[in-house]
Amino acid sequence: MSKLLHLPFLLLLPLLSPPRAGAASSHHHHLRSLNFSLFQQETINKTGYIVVDGVAGAGVGQTTTPFGTIFVFNDGMTVTPNASSRVAGIAEGASITSSLDGLRSVSFAKITLRIRGLQGSISIVGGTHNIKPADHPVVGGTGDFMFVGGYVRSSPVDLEGVTVVYKIEFHLYWPPYAANGPSK
Ligand SMILES: *[C@@H]1O[C@H](CO)[C@@H](O)[C@H](O)[C@H]1NC(C)=O
Ligand SMILES: *[C@@H]1O[C@H](CO)[C@@H](O)[C@H](O)[C@H]1NC(C)=O
Ligand SMILES: *[C@@H]1O[C@H](CO)[C@@H](O)[C@H](O)[C@H]1NC(C)=O
Fold first, then answer.
1. Ligand index nearest the alpha carbon of residue 174
2. What is the annotated signal peptide range for this record (predicted)?
3. How many structural domains compose the chain?
């Protein structure tokens, strides 16, 4: 066979071979990520208030609120479940009870963070379940968290007593075009 006949086949080779694992993971390395957990401390009538009464369904209980209840909060987020531990974030937001059993709500919040040398805020929106873990998409951020994506998972830790505690796990990703954030 002549060299000329070989040429098109050689040019096709890169297209025929399956993508190399190395190439895929090196592409992945451009996405900087950060995982950490904080504990949201919420005290009824101190850091969180019902501002609009609900209209139907379950009554006001330790874990339920009537459908349509609007609750606003400004909660400290500590580094351990202990309320006396260092505050590394503030969660400001509201939730609206959206199920008749009084357990589910739609929430939005701005979480101001000062953690691992990073400063700024992230904004989250999503459904919350009062007694089960729930994931909330991160819709964006400011400061060192500008353009951030990912999700936060909120799980109840302690629902007894005046102060309720939720564990908030942050899974944050910075796109390649974000100038700030953790170093590569
Ligand atoms: C964060 O967790 C995700 C999985 O949830 C993982 O893919 C990622 O590598 C982790 N990032 C860091 C910096 O540990
Ligand atoms: C919070 O305040 C409201 C209105 O004053 C009251 O009805 C409710 O019982 C209080 N809740 C708690 C847990 O103290
Ligand atoms: C919480 O932290 C405070 C101050 O560090 C400490 O005195 C207290 O014993 C801790 N509480 C628990 C339940 O660990």
1. 1
2. 1-23
3. 1
